[in-house]
Amino acid sequence: MSSRAPASAPTQINPNPILAPPHIHALLDRLHAKSEAQEREITSADYAQDKGDFDALMRDKFIALDRDKCWFVYSTILSMGAKNVVEAGTSYGVSTIYLALAVSQVLEMQNKSKSGSDSRSATGKVIATENEPSKAAQAREYWNEAGDQVASLIELREGDLRETLKRDLPTVDLLLLDIWSPLALPTLQVVQPSLRPGSVVITDNITGSAARYADLIRYLNDEKNGFRNINVPYNKGLSVSVYVGKE
């Protein structure tokens, strides 16, 4: 008996895990294209500017989390059943759409699996953070374009996240750090008391910006702070830190 696969058999797994209506896929394609076009125009000289000039340059830029990294974070949320997610650094809200889609599916799966004796619906949300008012306003427009499946799960906190995340946090399952590097460690320290054992912290550009993340890296590597870390080899690195609890 021949073991040769049929000619029509697929040769690889479809790498896109996103389950969403066509209009959301089209929206994400459009937003990623805008972000990628902007990033191609940023030069090394731009990054060498002083902070004030660089901030002004970046004020209208997407700088969205890379598409393949968004897929990874989305899959991580599904695999761990994360219901409450915090995003530090929302910008125009592209990655937030992926977070909300994943949380939506987690809630759907958990509600389907409930026994008849438990009538309570599972609840969750994505807490997004943005300091730039124009970006926050535009992000809301994109989420509304995506529809209620996305928009209804997002709580946007505007202002300095070191202050806005100090209050009313649920038990946090996943924290995404995709933010200006000096704010990464202060943000983690604000959110950490709300992390549950087994929660995950994902940090973008952990190798590409290692020097700027030095304080965060030292903190994550110090075992007394309760994290176990691994780097995923995406472009410029993506770290996954599992919180096991402080000693």
* Radius of gyration over all CA atoms, rounded: 19 Å
**Assigned CATH superfamily:** Vaccinia Virus protein VP39
Q: What share of the residues lie within helices?
A: 40-55%
Distance between the termini: 59 Å
Number of helices: 10
Count all strands and give the number.
Answer: 7
Overall residue-averaged pLDDT value: 88
The succession of helices and strands, N to C, reads HHHHEHEHHEHEHEHEE
The structural domain count equals 1
What does this structure look like?
By secondary structure, this protein is α/β, with parallel strands linked by helices. It has one domain (65-114, 121-243): Vaccinia Virus protein VP39 (Rossmann fold, 3-Layer(aba) Sandwich), CATH 3.40.50.150. The chain has helices at 22-41, 44-47, 51-58, 67-80, 94-113, 133-146, 148-151, 161-164, 184-191, 214-221, and strands at 84-88, 125-130, 154-158, 172-177, 195-204, 227-232, 238-243. A hairpin with a 5-residue loop joins strand 6 and strand 7. Helix 4 runs parallel beside helix 5. It is globular.
Strand and helix layout:
Elements: H1 22-41, H2 44-47, H3 51-58, H4 67-80, E1 84-88, H5 94-113, E2 125-130, H6 133-146, H7 148-151, E3 154-158, H8 161-164, E4 172-177, H9 184-191, E5 195-204, H10 214-221, E6 227-232, E7 238-243
Care to give the gist of this entry?
This protein has helices at residues 22-41, 44-47, 51-58, 67-80, 94-113, 133-146, 148-151, 161-164, 184-191, 214-221; strands at 84-88, 125-130, 154-158, 172-177, 195-204, 227-232, 238-243. It is of the alpha/beta class and 247 residues long. A 7-stranded mixed β-sheet has the order 3-2-1-4-5-7-6, with helices on both faces.
